[in-house]
Amino acid sequence: MLKIADKEFSSRLIIGTGKFASNSIMKEAIQASGTQMVTVALRRVDLDNPDSDMTKAIDFSRLQILPNTSGAQTAEEAVKIACIGRTMGLGNWVKLEVTPDPWYLLPDPIGTLKAAELLSKDGFVVLAYMNADPVLAKRLEDIGTAAVMPLASPIGSARGIKTGEMIRIIIENSNLPVIVDAGLGTPSDAGYAIEMGADAVLVNTAIAASDDPVKMANAFRLAVKAGRMGYEAGLIASKEHAYASSPEKNII
Amino acid sequence: MIRENFLSLLDNNPWEKISGKIKNAGLDDVDRVLKKNKLDMDDFAILLSKAAAERISVLKKKAHQLTTQYFGKARFLYAPLYITNRCINSCVYCSFSEKNDIKRKYLNDTEIANDAEYLHNQGFRHILVVSGEDPIIMKSNYLINTIALLHKKFPSISIEVQPLTESLYRKAAAAGCDGLSLYQETYNRDVYKTVHTGGPKRNFKWRINGPERAACAGIKRINFGVLLGLADFRTDIWFAALHAAYIRKNFWRTQIGFSFPRIRPFVGSYHPDVEVKDNDMLHLILALRIMFPQASLVLSTRERPKFRDMLLSVAATNTSAGSKTNPGGYSDNSTTGQFDISDNRSPSEVIEAISAAGLYPVQKDWDIGLTG
């Protein structure tokens, strides 16, 4: 089981909601993915206009809603918007995103740490989107963050796991759940992250922007499941040389 | 930080040299550029060439793939709100030119609130405040007060007004303005002088440095554009891209976008020298998407419904809907608009068309928490 703060999840796949063609496709994809947690951009939620609200398509009773601060460029903006989400009744979980660079949407380490500290002290369960920086992961752990979310490559880029060496160190050192977020382009990328020992992955674009989001959501579900089984079974070590599949030594 | 001035960058890239580069590009150049992942401004010149137009289907495929990668299926809607058609400029292509005998008006707070209420009820949460160039905007707090008034209802407010001072941009940002549309109209200085026959807009330099002043002041999104039909549009778009790339390089927090105003019938007798056909406009949009995968590409209701729907399905990401281009137009039709509208569909009809194309129409993509 994946445990974040005081909650347990049997699914290790978290779904982003920003890029689907319609609410109905999103709803079906969420079901097919088997996810128990979806992240929603607070800036997209429109309380004045509940009819157009994408959250209508999301089953709040069954799913953990993870409001995110996407769009925030500074710690102050992120804190403000997280508080708005809580006031709206979306709970005290937040995916913290502080991304001052609109081009690659890379997270600001300084702003993220600052906002994570303020929000954690204020009672939020903070899941922090961050660059794959092992020291930052420990600093976030020290100040009370609930989970770290290192990026695999720039968000939406589908470039796969480019920060693997650093993610490996983060996983090795962390006492918190490590959720690999951003840049996972294929089900095998997600499976690989989980095999490495990541506790969960977050996927949006690779599912939402595919030609068949529902089928792709299912593919991610299976890949994550396979990856976890592989991890639990114990991966064998890779070797320098060839070793015959049917050993000949000592046979005769 | 030592920043190269954009005007000196402009001086180092003479118009004739760039238009020559675009004219001389061949199919071999185009095919080479289409294989690259990262493009520079020389590559962009090749992408804009007539030779590249022969590869339009390849451009379309690549642009569509990049749009889907960066924006998914989401498409963003906004509405313009004209606050005045009073103007002290005489631009030969514009109905608001002071030389035109039209009914002038600027909206008072109640009239602004009426239009705002109407747009809010239509679901819009992003509006573009537009005005003619009027001293009242510089001298009083009219614009800033208007932004503050609208910000109570709209989390995202862009402005399309005359170029302001840095300190006024700062005040605008503090009042809730997060976006600027400031089109140079043309980067060809000779044409610029010919079409801007009187008023402060004749000052090419003041206008061209406007985006930089706004970026310094912390305006988050800046939209560039040229008025298509004034000068050679391929060369003009190259310069608009140079301008945007310059802002991006020097102001890393600023998001850039492009708009594609094409000259439409208006009050006055000017006829554009250059015809920009639908295929030309499509070509420009595709080239810009390939050059700037993350940029917002914005359409207005100047264009016909079918053409707009097609552009949105391929590469454009933002569009206005149900627009009125006269001050108070949403509640009163007695004033003259800036240009004729080609897409007269209501916002809900546009939203329906976007959904029918398998795209997700987004009216709210910002929150007061981020701007106010």
Structure, explained:
The complex is a heterodimer of chains A (252) and B (372). Chain A has one domain (2-233): TIM Barrel (Alpha-Beta Barrel), CATH 3.20.20. In chain A, helix 4 packs parallel to helix 5 (164-173) and helix 6 (187-195) runs parallel beside helix 8 (213-233). Chain A is globular and about 80 Å long. Chain A has helices at 23-33, 75-87, 109-121, 134-142, 164-173, 187-195, 205-208, 213-233, and strands at 2-4, 7-9, 13-16, 37-41, 64-68, 93-96, 125-130, 147-150, 179-181, 200-203. With 252 residues, chain A is of the alpha/beta class. In chain A, strand 7 (125-130), helix 4 and strand 8 form a beta-alpha-beta unit. In chain A, strands 5-4-3-10-9 form a five-stranded parallel beta sheet. A three-stranded parallel beta sheet of chain A has the order 6-7-8. Chain B is of the alpha/beta class and 372 residues long. Chain B has a single domain (6-371), classed as TIM Barrel, CATH 3.20.20. In chain B, 44% of the residues lie in helices and 14% in strands. Chain B is built from 18 helices and eleven strands. Chain B has helices at residues 6-11, 15-24, 27-34, 41-47, 50-53, 56-71, 109-121, 135-139, 142-151, 166-175, 189-195, 204-208, 210-216, 233-250, 278-291, 305-314, 347-356, 368-371, and strands at residues 74-84, 90-91, 126-131, 156-160, 177-181, 196-198, 221-224, 255-259, 296-299, 318-320, 360-362. In chain B, the strands form two sheets. An eight-stranded parallel barrel of chain B has the order 1-3-4-5-7-8-9-10, surrounded by seven helices. A two-stranded antiparallel sheet of chain B has the order 2-6. The longest helix of chain B has 18 residues, at 233-250. Chain B is globular, with a radius of gyration of 20 Å.
